[in-house]
Design a protein that fits this description.
Helix content is 14%, strand content 34%. It is an alpha+beta fold. The two termini are 19 Å apart.
């Protein structure tokens, strides 16, 4: 299943741009990466695994929920950016219709040997090949850190279909604090994917193209203040604490709400951010928080990733999504991943 132990390798990369970012020496300390499907032969095997039998394993996968419930409360504090605000612009093409095709499901085989899924989103990058999700949706952190198996991204996923192709992960970039310490403040991951494939009538795989060329790529915003509204896109499923279950996880859901600072008691975090959102935890890990989202272009700026949910008012229903604060450290990881080429598997 292509499940490998994490290679804790630091990558020293010079960073470009006028915004305040980490220098090469600091980047070498914080950037960690690991292979997923390193060769085209490995990637073809992974694609075949998920596309076989009309995508039966995509439909049978269950939402991944290693730990989704977060205990904490909303606060009236303000974030303290470690540097100047910065952003990376999104890129078309315009997504036709609603919802945005950049959002989709991340599929993988967990340590239990079973297929699972999280949420994810396509980002703009140099080679149009980048997916953002929660780091827990790429790594099994129960024992020694190890990548999950057969990792793929399906944008615009709906009920077992791959309308914009299936994209096999080649390499994942994360912050070293997550792999070394399980730091909740660094629970984010950027995955480089091969060009997409779809099954043909003859049973072979046909290339669709690079991810962002097909569905577009969301932008990125970091070192920002909390905002009156962000749009959250993901695939929530599973029951609320009171037993109700408003979501099935079969189709993309959207919620809109303000962001605010949080104080967490478990797991601990230095500067977590919350969003007013009714998403349940199962399946919602990796959901994108888009600032400045355009209804016309279906594009905005990623400024949060759901890594947990919380019931902050005690009524038995989740009301808050939790994300790490997008700071200079996150931008450092993004820049390392954004400059990595992947290629085709067919």
């Amino acid at each position: 299943m292509m499940r490998r132990r994490l290679l804790a390798l630091g990558v020293g990369l010079g960073l470009l741009g006028a915004t305040a970012v980490a220098g090469p020496a600091e980047a070498a300390d914080v950037v960690a990466w690991a292979p997923l499907a390193s060769s085209t032969a490995d990637a073809q095997q992974v694609a075949t695994f998920w596309l076989a039998d009309g995508g039966a394993k995509l439909r049978s996968a269950t939402p991944y929920a290693p730990r989704t419930e977060v205990r904490g409360e909303r606060t009236s504090g303000t974030v303290v950016p470690p540097g100047k605000p910065g952003s990376v612009n999104p890129v078309g093409p315009e997504a036709e219709g609603e919802p945005p095709r950049t959002s989709g499901k991340v599929f993988f085989v967990g340590a239990d040997g079973l297929p699972h899924w999280c949420s994810g989103t396509a980002l703009q990058s140099q080679y149009r090949n980048l997916v953002a999700t929660a780091a827990h949706c790429v790594y099994d952190m129960e024992g020694a850190p190890a990548t999950v198996g057969s990792w793929v991204f399906v944008p615009a996923y709906s009920d077992g279909t791959t309308p914009s192709g299936l994209y096999v992960g080649k390499r994942v970039f994360v912050h070293s604090d997550f792999t070394q310490y399980g730091d909740h403040d660094r629970d984010f991951a950027f995955v480089n994917v091969y060009s997409g494939v779809v099954p043909s009538d003859s049973g072979t795989q046909v290339t669709t193209g690079r991810l962002a060329d097909i569905v577009g790529g969301q932008g990125l915003a970091f070192n920002q203040a909390t905002t009156p509204a962000v749009d959250v896109f993901g695939y929530p499923a599973g029951p609320h604490p009171d037993g109700t279950r408003p979501y099935t996880g079969d189709t993309l859901e959207r919620s809109t709400g303000p962001t605010f600072t949080m104080s967490l008691s478990a797991p601990p975090a230095d500067q977590p951010i919350g969003v007013d959102s009714p998403f349940t935890g199962d399946g919602a890990l990796g959901s994108s928080w888009l600032e400045g989202y355009s209804e016309e272009q279906r594009l905005g700026y990623l400024n949060g990733i759901t890594t947990g949910v919380s019931d902050t008012d005690g009524d038995g229903r989740h009301d808050t999504g939790i994300s790490p604060y997008f700071d200079t450290g996150l931008y450092t990881i993004f820049k390392a991943a954004a400059s990595y080429w992947t290629g085709r598997i067919t």
